[in-house]
Amino acid sequence: MNNYLNFKIVGSGPSGLLLAISLAKLNFNIYITDLLTREKLINKDKTYAITHSTRKILSKFNLWSKLKSYLYKFDSLSISDSVTSDFTILTTSDLDKDICSLDTIGWVVKHSDLMNVFFDEVDNMDNICFKSSQDLSFDDIKFDYEFVSTGANSNHKKNRNLIDIRKSYNQSCLTFEVLVRGNVPRRAYEIFRKEGPLALLPLDNNKYQIIWTATSSKSMDRLNSSKSFLLDNLSTILPDNFKLDQINSDINIFPVSLSLSLPIFNFKKVVFVGDSFHTFHPVGGQGLNTCWRDVNVIYDIFNTNVPVSNRALNIFKYKYYFIRFLDIISTIVVTDSLIKFFANNKFFLLPFRKFSFLLLNKFNFMRRIILNHMTKSLIFSSIK
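Now predict its structure.
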């Protein structure tokens, strides 16, 4: 390792690893730690939707080409409302000119493939050291800054003098993989239902990841039911052309919440990144993409030809939080509004819901606004 600044990153999920890789490219000494082993960190049955803003970030750190063979792209997105029976289909023709040439709305990647690529990159960088929490505690290292990326409910957030804003949706997500027939290739689905949205992300021509949101009690009942009952239950709410063959993975459940952690004024050199900083409802698939935009901003702040001074470190987190504020707030507003308006069967909202789909189907510019906000985000043009 070199003699430059020492940074500690607590949490080795996708956000923590990308942060380590990006800061290592600036010749900082990076020490990553996690309570889980590398094997457990990799072998999680999760799937992520990747947006165009994330593509630019991964390309910036020379990771896109290494990840590309593991990505499955989708070129159409069906959005439907099961309460009003309205729907619209967004396609690549609705994308802005600067991204439509790629002929895809987004990509889907499995967690294990993503983590393997990231760990391979970490292993090839001499100034990144991956250690267990216990081993690192024995090392006599003075850390110039600590980054926490351990999730919304981490113990690392306790006693940190934070303003912790939280909203519980009383919902949970079931996620699992299914084999299907009769589907439209390379099409993703977002189905708004009164109990919560249901998303289908294509993993290949006949395989989908199901992200099924419902009340926590109903999700637990489904988790504890047989796979055959779950398939029968799911078949009743999928598009007519879908024919389910089998569940092809374990069934996992995770809680759904909105959270935002902001620091009380101090100069402690600790900052929260990713889900430790913010969480959103999974509708629209913005979670990990927004976390990686945190990483992009941190890299840009430190990417300067001027040596990092102690004063710069003292004000770093306030600069970081200020830059990230608008993007995070807009994501909170959009995802929370979608749940308020579409995850129910309130009679007085039905005209609004029908009018929303009428606008989407009648006016191309409305489709363009919605789709490009989802896949580009507010900071797309600033990602260099």
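The chain has 13 helices and 17 strands.
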